[in-house]
Amino acid sequence: MVFFSFFDVKRFFGEKILFWGAAFISFLIVAVFCVGAMVKILGYVSNARLIFSAQKTLIQAELDAKQASVRRGISHAEMLWANERQASVSSSALPKFGEAKDYIYIKDEPSFFEVFAKADVDNHSVEYFDDYIRFSERLAKIATGDVSATKSPLHSYHYTPDGSYMAFMPPSVENIELIEREKIPQLMQKFSLDLGDLSDPEVRKAWKESRATKWLLPGEGLLLEDQVIRLVQPAFDGDEVFMVYASDLAVDRLKANLQRSDFDGTFFVVSNDGQILLQSTGDKTNDAEMAAMAQILKKTKAWQLPGPNSKVHYSRGLFTVSQPLGDTEWFAVYAYTVKTMGRADHAARAGACGHAQGAGFQGAGIDADAPLV
């Protein structure tokens, strides 16, 4: 029979108490550490929403200003067309068509925008274009005043649906020789835009009722040599389209807004089908990380995930918050990672309590659907 002395029992329970006491204290330390780290994560997530809101506001303001400018241009164009067709005096620039064959430069006053007009004089008389020339003259005056008031640069052109007349306002210095030399059918191939069959009454009705501006994906500029976003909208005379108006917005102008701001992650503008139209990274994110974020973003299509605006989603190691950009059918997305947080000195120790991330994300309103990779 084995007998335990009082000291043996004391030693046994003492060791147990020390072990479990140490374990409990360690647990408390880890718990406090994790709670502190999670608080920092939630603080960074909240701050990221503010960063996103600020960046999105800058981009949205630029897009809204451009769209408003185009719509003002359409409104002025429709008003001018109605008035100019009733005028009895021909344009003083009309005889110049006979001198230059198929193009003229129009500038009534030194302070007004110059207009370069091109016409199909092979199939129409010079007099046929009188209304169009007077229209372009008056539109240049109004556009000059609009640009002076808004301080926003203008690179635009307009053309008739039948392709017989086209005018650039102001003409591009880089491409002026090209548009002087080429015939209008070749220019129409380069500059005309797909708005559907404008000879179809139903297509015209849809455009007139919506008064929508079509946003084209960024591409090489024809008026500017930089990447541009092109906006286009038809102008109506009653139920007929008499002119199509297009205006370019330089992508660099949008990038300049982002570069003036300080943020840690990467800001994207994406189309609904996943094309990345614009991206700008903060000082704490390098190009390789931005490329990795872009790849994950394309795979997850986070901007299409359900939820209220500004909801943070978490997938494959990437946090994202997104909102649509006005009438463009594009989305603003701000993306960042746990690594981004660490570099920003927010939740640098979050990896130590990774097992608690999922529950913490859900509690913070973050949609987590995959582990960190």
**Main structural class:** alpha+beta
What does the main sheet amount to? Answer: 8 strands, antiparallel
Beta-strand segment tally = 14
One letter per element, helices H and strands E, the order comes to HHEEHEEHHHEEEEHEEHEEEHHE
Organism: Comamonas kerstersii
Transmembrane segments: 17-39
Keywords: Membrane, Transmembrane, Transmembrane helix
Protein name: Cache domain-containing protein
Summarize the structure.
The protein is an alpha+beta fold and 373 residues long.
Outline the fold blueprint:
Blueprint lengths: L5 H79 L11 H5 L2 E4 L8 E5 L10 H21 L5 E4 L5 E5 L6 H6 L2 H8 L9 H10 L3 E2 L3 E2 L6 E11 L2 E11 H9 L6 E6 L4 E6 L5 H14 L11 E4 L2 E7 L5 E7 L1 H6 L13 H7 L2 E3 L5
Parallel strand pairs: 11-14
Antiparallel strand pairs: 1-2, 2-4, 3-4, 3-8, 5-7, 6-7, 7-8, 9-10, 9-13, 11-12, 12-13
Helix pairs in contact: 1-3, 1-7
Protein name: Cache domain-containing protein
Keywords: Membrane, Transmembrane, Transmembrane helix
Keywords:
373 residues, 10 helices, 6-stranded mixed sheet, Cache domain-containing protein, 8-stranded antiparallel sheet, 44% helix, Beta-Lactamase, alpha+beta
How would you characterize this protein structure?
The protein folds into two domains: 65-252, no CATH class; 262-350, Beta-Lactamase (2-Layer Sandwich). Helix content is 44%, strand content 21%. The protein has ten helices and 14 strands. It has helices at 6-84, 96-100, 130-150, 176-181, 184-191, 201-210, 251-259, 287-300, 338-343, 357-363, and strands at 103-106, 115-119, 156-159, 165-169, 214-215, 219-220, 227-237, 240-250, 266-271, 276-281, 312-315, 318-324, 330-336, 366-368. Strands 1, 2, 3, 4, 5, 6, 7 and 8 form an eight-stranded antiparallel sheet that branches. A six-stranded mixed sheet has the order 10-9-13-12-11-14, with helices on both faces. A hairpin with a 4-residue loop joins strand 9 and strand 10 (276-281). The two termini are 59 Å apart. Residues 346-365 and 369-373 have low confidence and may be disordered. It comes from Comamonas kerstersii.
